[in-house]
Amino acid sequence: TASSEAALAITGLAKHFGGLKALDGVDLSVRRGAVHALIGPNGSGKTTFINVATGLYRPTAGTIRLAGQDLTTAPAHERTRRGLARTFQNIRVFRGMTVLENVMIGAERPGNDIAEQPALVVSRALAALDFVGLRADANRLVGTLSYGHQRYVEIARALAGNPHILLLDEPAAGLNMTEKHELGLLLRRLKGHGLTILIVDHDMNLVEQVADHITVLNFGRRIADGTPREVLTDPDVIAAYLGE
Ligand code: ADP
């Protein structure tokens, strides 16, 4: 079935805060190997979606399946263990530790194939740093890197855990134009390696560059779902963004 082939399959997801329906029956299925973007105007429910998908909040209704396994009520650490890796809108790295040490934390994630093998943890972390172009900075303190490069450290840490799916929460937030462009190139390289990515962003520019598939939220409901060409020419989507 379609849902067993999906890396992440979410059906009927709802989250109510009192009378407010922050999410109101959202379906979203991320195909394995796809770069899938979740977009929508401010207040449309994107952050709530991430918080429910990663286990910070319990959904009011709906199901969440990761690689075919039901994780609807699983705590956040269990989802990480099962291969749901994420980055944060406000970067979360250990600034007083080296770049390599930060990335090794990802490689050591419980549930990773190499978690208990120290030599492999180092080599997996170095490979992830190679991928994001920071291998030469492995022994620098993260706090000495530019904001854009700290974002890369966070992405490398997620990659080092060999995740089933990488969830990027507004990865372009706080980046300048050059850094955004570089991030777009990095995401394309990740895609070229077959990584499955769910990218949540407000900004359409990055999304247009990298997404195979886009889901659009507005007022907690899915208003469009399809290829970038289908979605970005959809009158409801254009109206939602103009109506901000
Ligand atoms: P987005 O990330 O797309 O900007 P959010 O998920 O942050 O949207 O917000 C969706 C709606 O849910 C908004 O109306 C917001 O005020 C509300 N909301 C989000 N989190 C909470 C919360 N913890 N308690 C009450 N209302 C919330």
From TrEMBL:
Coiled coil: none annotated. It is found in: Cell membrane. It comes from Muricoccus vinaceus. The chain holds residues 348 to 591 of 598 of the full protein. This is ATP-binding cassette domain-containing protein. Residues 8-244 form the ABC transporter domain. It comes from the Bacteria.
